[in-house]
Amino acid sequence: MKILTIIFVLIYFYQPINSCQTTNNSPHIQDKKKLVENAIHNCIGWAKNKDIKLLYSVIANDTNFLEIHPNNRVVKGFEQFRKAEDFWMDPAFKAIRYEIRDLTINFSQSGEVAWFYCILDDINEWKGQPANWENTRWTGVLERRNGNYVIIQQHFSFASE
Length: 161
Fold this sequence. Notes:
Helix content: 25-40%
Number of strands: 7
CATH class: Alpha Beta
Number of helices: 5
CATH topology: Nuclear Transport Factor 2, Chain: A
Structural class: alpha+beta
Distance between the termini: 66 Å
Number of domains: 1
Shape: globular
């Protein structure tokens, strides 16, 4: 009888605890997923109108930010990231369009950290010539800070043929 009572108590208390865990299908996580998706799109989409404030609102503004490019260039920290501002804001750079395909977003159990994977076509011009990243693998990690998700790490690569 004691064993049955213990089992009943464990089941009784486990159910409420288990029901509080977030899943990728819960309404709460769906709201967070939308925030993450918006941050990902804003990280590329800002360039169309050169809305640098929008870009900086979705990038971690600290020394831990990390970005890796297909040519093995590594950007460490927000201040180093900002050094590209002269290029992006130059009138010779023109963002044409972008497309994100196969976007997959996952969350940590707490929902405070998200990671993603997608394929990116980033179509641009530099001095009237194509400057594109097509079929680019893009992965990243976002952290929730002050209610918003910001990218703390991102990696771009091209598949080797």
